[in-house]
Amino acid sequence: MPTSADIRLREDGFTLVELLVGITITMVVLLAALTSLDAFSSNAAHQTRVTDANGQVRSVMDSTVTDLRGASVILTAQDKDLAYAVPVSSTATRVERLCVASGELYGSKTPDDATPAAPSGACSGTKLATLQSGASTGFTYDSVTPALVKNVGLTVSLTTTQAGKEATSTLRASAARRSAGTLPITGGDIDGACGEAGPTLTLSAGIPGFGDLSVTYAYDGGVSVAIPGGTPWQVPPGITSVVATVTNAAGVTNTIEEDIECE
Predict the structure, then answer these.
(1) What is the C-alpha to C-alpha distance for residues 95 and 121, in angstroms, rounded to an integer?
(2) Is the pLDDT score of 222 beyond 60?
(3) What are the structural domain ranges in the chain?
(4) Which of 41, 149, 202, 214 has its CA 20 to 30 A from that of 248?
């Protein structure tokens, strides 16, 4: 039979020192858990920011590559400035621009315009990304003449900062500017003639199955837009090669390079 002394021993519980030690250990464990959780959340937020920045720029680059692989007309071909016109119908185009200024990548778009021209103002538009300091960001081409560019390379070196942490990444893409392949027009459908005033080019007016066609001629020094099929175009003096973009009424295009020879 338990004595009164045994009962008193079981009723004594924890001492104050034991309680303080237990609370201290619990606080240390909680503090370590909260520190780990905060570090995890910070890393997750940083990674999300990096992923979002990369995704935004990658989306722009993919769109640019898609445009360039179609029948775009290159308007500006500089290492920090790329501008091109994309036909949206037989009579209108939109002008897209990517440029670098003060360590930032900018993008801009103009409304549909029947007479696209290379942007002449300073680099501006929507800020797309912050670039790595001293890193190589820009564009490369296979020709110094915008209208004759066939291959474009894009390199964007990004830097992203979140909660004092910095991450860098480099995105690359390339585009071979070529026919979209959906409008099977060939060089034989553009007739060249030599006259007293110089050479002329004429897109055949009656190509069966394609409807009304127009052609945009891009050359070193300018762009001549939306000339109807069957209408002769006077080639400017000194021009020996042009890039012809043929467009039907639905906006379907094809691009042909024409060499011009007159004796």
Answers:
(1) 14
(2) yes
(3) 72-176, 187-259
(4) 149
